[in-house]
Design goal:
Layout lengths: L7 H4 L27 H15 L3 H10 L1 H5 L12 H24 L16 H11 L8 H12 L7 H10 L14 H7 L17 H11 L3 H7 L36 H6 L3 E5 L8 E3 L2 E5 L1 E3 L3 H14 L6 H12 L3 H9 L3 E3 L4 H11 L13 H12 L1 H13 L3 H29 L3
Parallel strand pairs: 1-3, 4-5
Antiparallel strand pairs: 2-3
Helix pairs in contact: 2-5, 3-5, 3-7, 5-7, 5-8, 5-9, 8-10, 13-14, 14-16, 15-16
Amino acid sequence: MCIYRVPYYLREGDYKTYAPRIVSVGPYHHGKKGLLEMDRHKWRALHHVLKRSNHDINLYLDAVKELEKKARACYQGLSITSLGSNEFVEMMVLDGCFVIELFRGAAEGLMNLGYPRNDPIFAMRGLMHSIQRDMILLENQLPLFILDRLLGLQLGRPDQRGLVARLALQFFDPLMPTYEPLRKSYRSNLDSSLGHVITFHPLSDRVDLHCLDVVRRSLLQRGSQREMKRWLLPFPRIDAWTPWLEKKEIPTHNRDADERRQQLIHCVAELREVGIKFKKKKTDRFRDIEFKNGILYIPRLLIHDGTKSLLLNLIAFEQCHLDCAHDITAYVVFMDNLINSHQDVGHLHYSGIIKHWLGSDSEVADLFNHLNRGKVFEINDSYLSHLSGDVNRFYENKWNAWRASLRHTYFSNPWAIISLAAAVFLLLLTFVQTFYGIYGYYKPR
């Protein structure tokens, strides 16, 4: 089981963040009235696939029929739904081919797949952004092995694995909260990959679950741009890869813990009072945060209108899936602790850590405060717990506060430094004058 209905305690008061608005993928929102308009475009995409590959529809139906039991087991509570066998298989084929067409269209170009330049769905960029946000939702997922099988049948290689994960990262890249996009020069490499057998990919040492899982582990394990470009080459060398996912013991989580225990560190304004500085870390690893010599290094974060939905669904997946560490949740709690007001956001923006496309810094502060609402987990299992302890020890050291106060009072600007130097110089002159006055009194010439 890896595709869940979002628990009520997470969705309370914010159902729209977890529910699709344009397109349904999978059984949870299948057949809902507001989403039926997209179904005719799904059928149109399926007809394009059959015409382009010269395949019969039964090839896809029979292949998915073999995987039906395994696919049903991926969904929470699906065994008691009213979906019959034929309806479930048809839905998997229809939705799966639609998803793959979107992925391939982003990588190869729609015209290369036989779609007109002014296609009513695939060529509408504004609508495509909404479709991307719908397709990243936890309740709107298809098992990745279904997508792998459908794409393999289209390419004549039913056992291929890994290419859908690559295409998914290309497709969902505009939603990523990392600053540097990954798809500057990857289109040609992905296009080339479609012509070769792909049986390995470094995002995982286990089977991928679904697209949201691929995006999550990509965020946590992204390396340098050079490493990602090597991965997107048509023929990656398997022996050249290093593990992308550390094997860790599954932590135990206590959802009933007091929310006050999630206060990892103080906010930016309070940390600055004791002399802690904030600098952008030059990396695209989402969680690569470091504290050294009184400086907190944080990777750059890009916030846009799709960031809230993405992060909330990633958190929901971590809350639901047992075989999943709470790394995204820990990151969100950490950033929420840092950001209490628009002044905190403003300083992080000034430091180059946060860049946002929202209306104001206050909206960014409200976003993080909302993200952390009701998300309770055991902070001692967090990968940031050790770093937070180092920051707190630095904060509690009174000498650091005194030194920061001295620096802020007397060394905050050039005029303050000049005034301090002049005062010290006058004090020295007064001392010298006093010394010679006393010396001349006791030892006159």
